[in-house]
Amino acid sequence: MEGRPTWLEIDLDAIVHNFHVAKQASGDQTAVFPVIKANAYGLGAVPIAQALIQAGANGFCVALVEEARVLRQAGIEAPLVLLSGFTPGVEQAIIDLDVQPVLFEMEAARRLSRLCTALGVEVSLHIKVDTGMGRMGFAAVKIPAILEELERLPGLRLIGILSHLACADDLAGTQTASQLALMHNTVKQADGDGGGLIRSMANSAGVLGHPATRLDWIRPGILLYGASPFFPERSWKQDGLRPVVRWVTHLVAIREVAAGTPLGYGHDFVTRRFSRIGVLPVGYADGLSRCVQNRAWVLTHQHRVPVVGRVSMDLTMVDLTDFPEVSTGSRVTLLGEEGQEFIGVEEMATWMETIPYEVLCRLGARLPRYHLTANKPFGTHFATPFA
Ligand SMILES: *Cc1c(COP(=O)(O)O)cnc(C)c1O
DSSP assignment, residue 156? Predict the structure, then answer.
C-alpha cells in the first residue's frame, strides 16, 4: 500500500457523536452494545471499539468468533456478544475468547455444554426468539420448553433473550409493534415477572424510530457509521448524525482526446466533444461498483465531476473538460465533503442500487484506513506522492 494515493479517513469523533445520538435516544437504563461485525461495517473494528469504550459503550456485538478474536488480540476486554457464529467447531473459541453466544439451535447448546463440562467452565449466553424476522431463532411458543432444557445443561448460564426487527425502517408500519408484543409475551411466559433475563431487540432503526423496542440493551450499527437506518425515506442529517467516512484519491493521469473517441472497456462511452479525461487509481476492487457507470460523480476543486465509461478493477475515468484547473495529482473525493459539495454513503448507495450498509462493507480491504480524531482532523496528515 506504500505510497498509494488512495485511502479512507474515518472520523472517530463523528462515530462517537453518533453513538451519543443512540445513547441519548435510549436513556440511562439501557445499555449500548455497538455492532462492529464485519470489521465495523468495513471501517476498522479495533480503533472504533477503542473509541467507543472511551465513550461509554457497555460491550460490542460481532458476527463471528474470528471478529471477536481480532478484538481480544487488540486488548479489548469488554463483553462481546456473538450474533451469528454458533456453528460446530467454534465452542472452544467461544470459551477461550470469553464471548456470549446467541443460541438459536438446541444442538449447539448441547455441544457447548459438553465442552464446558469437560473443562469445568461456564459460558454466559443469550437465547434468540423469532418474533417475526423469520430468519433465525426459536419459535416463541417453544421458548418455555427450551428454557427448561437449558436449565438442565451444565456449564451454560442463560443471561438474556434477544430478537431482531424485520421492518423497523418502516416508521408507519405495524410489524414492529407486533414483534414487540410477541417479545413481551414470550418473556412473560419464560420468566414470570421478566426480571431474570436481559432483553434486546433494537437495531439502529429500532433505537431511533421505535422507542419501545429499546428494552435493556440496544444494538446500533449503521447509525454509528453515519447513515440513516431509514434511508431513502430519511437521511443522516434528519437523524442528527455526522458523516464518518472520507474516501480520497488523486488523479494519476489526464488525457486529451478528440470528439468521437471511445473510452475504456466495451467502448461504452464515446466523447461528444474534445475532452479532458482524468484517470483515478480506484476501481471495483476498492468498492466502487461497476454499476455506478453513467451515474456517479466525484468531487475535485469543489466541483462535481462525472464518472465516464466502465469502472474497471483498478481504474476509473472522469470527465474534466469543464474544469481546466484540475491537473494530475489533484485530490479527488469519492466520499465526503469538498467545499460546499458532499457525497455520502447514502448517495453512493443509490448509484450502486443498494443500501449504505453494502457500500461500506464493500470498501476494499486494500484501501488504507486512517482513523482520525479532533487532534488529527480530516485531510491534514497525509502527504500525497504528488505534493
Ligand atoms: C447487524 C445487526 C444489528 C445492527 O443493525 P443496524 O441496522 O446496522 O443498526 C443489530 N442486531 C443484529 C442481530 C444484527 O445482525
Answer: E
